[in-house]
Amino acid sequence: xxxxxxxxxxxxxxxxxxxxxxxxxxxxxxxxxxxxxxxxxxxxxxxxxxxxxxxxxxxxxxxxxxxxx
Length: 69
What we know:
Elements: H1 2-10, E1 17-18, H2 27-31, E2 36-37, H3 55-68
Parallel strand pairs: 1-2
């Protein structure tokens, strides 16, 4: 978060995306600073990078995104 905040301070008008560590528990904090995020394993079955996307996890994640926005 410190790096993300530092980049946003220096480039306030440039879209900044978080690309790691964004999970259900952190997405609200990340989106308070970043303009968006790249999400991978947080949406996958069992949190496994190589597994398929879990529709229920994805829906829950997006509920949290909408609440944060």
